[in-house]
Amino acid sequence: MDRMETLTQEIAAVAARMVVEDGMDYGSAKRRAGRQLGLAPRTALPDNELLESAVREHLALFHADTQPAELAALRQLALLWMERLAEFRPHLVGAVWNGTATRLTDIHLQLFCDDPKSAEIALIDQRVDYQVRSVNGFHGAAVDALSFSVPCPELGETVGVHLIIHDHDDLRGALKPGAHGRAARGDRKALLQRIDEETSG
Questions:
Q1: Which domain holds residue 127?
Q2: Domain check: are 57 and 71 in the same one?
Q3: What is the mean pLDDT of residues 169-188?
Q4: Confidence (pTM)
């Protein structure tokens, strides 16, 4: 293994600890890990696939006794909100979908709406107090993200839920497999199937 590859793995290991222990997002964790290791600003950072692998290793080493139950609680909460927002074709993404979530992880749902404001109306109807911000969508264009917090009784704390609002026509492209043919997101049925496979496997 050459020095560059070793350095990239070292960055991934430090960043993985920040993701798991501090609940940081991948981008912020990689940049902070580089600074913590005293690396030049232009140093190549690990890709998300390598970081996800390092996160899984960290979880297996330090949180194997607690993480599965925390993930299960978050997935049940995600299922509840996917049911409540079913008309907007919700798809789960991120750590709760890929299985690396802990009690510090937020739930990220992508909604595919005919009318971008309809999801906001649904939240208002359900008396949800939410915040709106702008994030990058699939093609780099700005889309709305609706964020709110809800109690998670199993974890004994509140969990952040983020709804990323996409156009209905974006759904077909979003369902293409991601890296290594793995689905980058899943609807309620896909999540239930994944839970079933992981519990029986």
A1: 67-200
A2: no
A3: 77
A4: 0.92
